[in-house]
Write a structure and sequence with these properties.
Largest sheet: 5 strands, antiparallel
Strand order of the largest sheet: 4-9-8-7-6
Radius of gyration: 15 Å
Structural class: mainly beta
């Protein structure tokens, strides 16, 4: 980057489940290389291998499969986890509480195309205590 170039404030990422039935584009701000991705140690994030970012809902465009996503809730049901019914890929999670990030969706970065997850900076979150 030269001194005249400003850092990107956002970047568009293509994502999909393993079988390709669910496809989406997400505009992430700041870009993944300029932020930390959340790595939570709660039971569902650990089992599903979630690495999450939290764009606003209007920054996500589903091209296919949104209506077919299956949902899973557990415990108090504060978060709805969405997965592909065909291949089982955990794609996203959304709060059911209108006072808790109601206008954001957690997207699993592992579903993004051409992202090397080993190069991401992680924000370790202790979700076990919730």
């Amino acid at each position: 980057m030269t001194s005249e170039e400003a850092p990107k404030t956002s970047k568009s990422y293509e994502g999909s489940c393993h079988c390709g039935a669910v496809k989406f584009t997400a505009n992430i701000s700041p870009p993944l290389e300029d932020q930390k991705v959340t790595c939570c140690n709660c039971s569902i994030c650990t089992i599903n291998g979630y690495l999450n970012v939290y764009p606003k809902d209007e920054e996500i465009t589903f091209h296919s499969g949104k209506e077919e996503l299956k949902e899973y809730k557990f415990g108090p049901g504060r978060i709805v986890h969405s997965f592909c019914p065909t291949c089982g890929t955990s794609v996203a999670a959304k709060s059911t509480d209108p006072n808790f990030f109601a206008d954001h969706t957690a997207l699993n970065v592992r579903t993004f195309k051409d992202v090397d997850v080993d190069q991401l900076q992680l924000n370790k979150f202790d979700g076990k205590k919730f």
